[in-house]
Write a structure and sequence with these properties.
The protein is built from 1 helix and 6 strands, in the order H-E-E-E-E-E-E. The chain is an alpha+beta fold and about 110 residues long. Strands 1-6-3 form a 3-stranded antiparallel β-sheet, with no helix packed on it. Strands 2-5-4 form a 3-stranded antiparallel β-sheet, with no helix packed on it. The radius of gyration is 19 Å and the shape is elongated. It starts with 13 loop residues before the first helix and ends with a strand.
């Protein structure tokens, strides 16, 4: 994840060292927020019924947010179908019609 790339430098100035320590602590807390560790799927076609959408997280997803929809069936929801491969894909659906959706999966 992008937040884990912070590297502290050893400085002679104690004030700068404390400043870096505070930045490091803050970034450590941010990385604990699962929402930030996700991937954006753009333009996924979602229709009625089950739509398996590969997320490529390399782990089971925790949740998702629909960030944009285009089309009549704009209410995207997780299917009630049991998903035994949450580490690979999410199963989404819409009540009627078809929509294109951008989905943040985390």
């Amino acid at each position: 994840m992008f937040l884990k790339s912070f590297r502290k430098l050893n400085m002679d100035d104690e004030l700068l060292n404390r400043f870096q320590d505070n930045i490091d602590r803050s970034l450590t807390q941010l990385t604990a927020i699962a929402l930030l560790d996700g991937i954006l799927i753009e333009g996924a076609s979602v229709t009625t019924g089950d739509n398996k959408i590969a997320h490529k997280l390399g782990r089971k997803y925790t949740g998702y947010l629909v960030t944009k929809t285009i089309g009549a069936g704009s209410v995207v929801y997780e299917s009630t179908t049991i998903n035994n491969a949450k580490d690979t894909f999410i199963i989404l659906s819409v009540a009627s019609g078809t929509t294109l959706a951008d989905i943040w999966i985390f």
